[in-house]
From TrEMBL:
InterPro entries given in the database record: Rhodanese-like_dom (IPR001763), Rhodanese-like_dom_sf (IPR036873)
Keywords: Signal
Keyword Signal: yes
PANTHER family registered for this protein in UniProt: THIOSULFATE SULFURTRANSFERASE RDL2, MITOCHONDRIAL-RELATED (PTHR44086), THIOSULFATE SULFURTRANSFERASE_RHODANESE-LIKE DOMAIN-CONTAINING PROTEIN 3 (PTHR44086:SF10)
Signal peptide span: 1-23
SUPFAM superfamilies (alphabetical): Rhodanese/Cell cycle control phosphatase
Domain Rhodanese, residue spans: 45-137
Protein name: Rhodanese-related sulfurtransferase
Domain of life: Bacteria
Keyword Signal: yes
Coiled coil: none
Length: 137
């Protein structure tokens, strides 16, 4: 019977695995924020808009968009911390590790809920930025 159960568990894992991947996808949009493509993100970068990297510290240290402020969404992003970087009426871009990372969507939601009115959600994040050949540090 245990052989049957192990085969059943293996089949169940194969059937459910695609659904787990779907669940890990970040939302395409965030209410109150503007989703931007890599081309739009680099335009905002060129305009001097603040970028907030909400990834974990080791990811930030491994490479980032030049000048990005690190506010880990799980430990450092607060209304006061964000207000020290940008005013509520100043554009700000949030990014993390792309479609499989939920941190930037969460950060954008938080900023909107705190009254920040010019929030940009760079869903494609650091991997797309780097793949496009844009500057990194």
């Amino acid at each position: 019977m245990s052989h049957f159960l192990s085969k059943l568990a293996a089949v169940a894992a194969l059937v459910l695995l695609p659904f787990a991947a779907l669940a890990a996808q970040s939302p395409e949009t965030v209410s109150g924020a503007t989703t931007v493509s890599p081309a739009e993100a680099v335009q905002l970068f060129d305009e001097g808009v603040a970028f907030i990297d909400v990834r974990k510290p080791s990811d930030y240290e491994a490479g980032r968009i030049p000048g990005a402020v690190h506010l880990d969404v799980k430990s450092a992003l607060t209304q006061d911390a964000l207000a020290e970087v940008v005013g509520a009426d100043v554009p700000v871009v949030f990014y993390c590790n792309g479609h499989s990372c939920m941190r930037s969507s969460k950060a954008a939601e938080m900023a909107v809920s705190w009254g920040f009115g010019k929030v940009y959600y760079f869903r494609d994040g650091y991997p797309a930025w780097e793949n496009a050949g844009f500057p990194i540090e």
